[in-house]
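By convention, the C-alpha cell line describes the chain's fold. To illustrate:
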Amino acid sequence: QVQLVESGGGLVQAGGSLRLSCAASGFTFSAYAMGWFRQAPGKEQEFVAAINWGGSTTTYADSVKGRFTISRDNAGKSVWLQMNNLKPEDTAVYYCAARFGSGLPSVRTSYPLWGQGTQVAVSS
C-alpha cells in the first residue's frame, strides 16, 4: 500500500523552528522526486520545496528560500523539511508529495502521490 505520512507539525512562535518529516512506504522511494506543498486557510495550495531522487538538486519557493531546507534519506525512505525563522504567514497545512522520475515541478498536478498533511501554526 502506497503511503506518505507526515509528522512534526505544531504551534511555534514567530522566529522559531520546526522540522517536518514524511515517511514513505509501498513504492520505490529512491526513484521518486519528493515535494512539500502547503495550504493556508482560505488560500490555494502552493509549492514550498522539492528534491530530486538522489538528493543532489533542490528547489524552493521564493517565500521560503533561505529559511527552509528540504532533505531526504533514501535508505530510510524519509524526506524532511527544516523550517527556520518561521513567520505567521507560514501557517498552513503542509503536505508531502511524490512523483516518479526526474524533474522538480512546482505544480501540484505533477505529483500523483500525497500524504494527509500536518498542521503548522506560527503565532506572532
Notes: The chain has a mean pLDDT of 97. The CA atoms of residues 89 and 111 lie 24 Å apart.
